[in-house]
Specification:
By secondary structure, the chain is of the alpha+beta class. The chain contains 7 helices and 6 strands, in the order βααβααβααβββα. The chain has a single domain, classed as Nucleoside diphosphate kinase-like domain (Alpha-Beta Plaits, 2-Layer Sandwich), CATH 3.30.70. The strands form 2 sheets. The protein has a 4-stranded antiparallel beta sheet, sandwiched between helices. Strands 4-5 form a two-stranded antiparallel ribbon. A hairpin with a 5-residue loop joins strand 4 and strand 5. The chain is globular and about 70 Å long. The protein binds 2'-deoxyadenosine-5'-diphosphate (DAT) and magnesium ion. The site of 2'-deoxyadenosine-5'-diphosphate has 9 residues, from loops.
């Protein structure tokens, strides 16, 4: 007798998570990391980033032209929360994109499942900004573009995308005095 065994194999993926300025201001970092640890995914990278206009506009480049674009840029830059920074993380593992999106919840915090992060902690301001606490990549192509925007290869502990050797010439940097 043949027994059919269906095994659902999920692809190993990586995804970008941002804890946005409202998430930091509301002291939700620990809470969000605890919820994400339920996924059993691995943290591959983490950093606190001061978001320049250039980075914000590049991250949301596909939304250029939307009526809410300028406010969205101000929000992610921290202009409304006295916190000019976000926490950026890369999660790695099977089905990472969908697992993180599920915990994150729908874009509109009023429509998000109430136990998701956005449903529980997000809000829409009177001027219509979706303050939805966190970002999560939506698909593998977006994840790759976003991870490469927010991290250099050396900041990620796993080898996830191809790298090449390069040399930076005449680059000014700050060193410990
Ligand atoms: P998501 O962040 O769920 O991937 P998205 O990529 O479509 O959603 O949009 C990016 C961000 O832009 C989203 O987190 C909040 C903001 N946004 C999207 N649609 C909006 C709208 N109709 N009004 C106000 N802000 C919006
Ligand atoms: Mg998106």
């Amino acid at each position: 007798m043949w027994v059919e065994l269906w095994v659902c194999v999920m692809a190993v993926e990586q995804t970008l998570v941002l804890i946005k300025p409202d998430g930091l201001k509301k002291s939700l970092t620990g809470n969000i990391l605890t919820r994400l640890s339920e996924t059993r995914l691995e943290i591959a990278a983490a950093r606190i980033v001061r978001v320049t206009r250039e980075l914000a506009e590049e991250h949301y480049t596909f939304l250029k032209g939307k009526p809410f674009f300028e406010e969205l840029i101000g929000y992610i830059m921290g202009e409304f929360h006295e916190r000019r920074k976000v926490m950026a993380l890369v999660y790695h593992g099977e089905g990472a994109i969908q697992k993180v999106r599920e915990i994150c919840g729908a874009t509109n915090p009023e429509e998000a499942d109430s136990v998701s992060i956005r449903g529980a902690y997000g809000r829409i301001t009177t001027s219509g900004v979706y303050e939805n606490v966190m970002h999560a990549s939506a698909n593998p192509e977006e994840a790759e573009r976003e991870i490469k925007l927010w991290f250099t290869p050396d900041e990620i502990v796993y080898h996830i995308y191809p790298v090449k050797d390069g040399e930076l010439k005449n680059v000014k940097t700050r060193l410990w005095a």
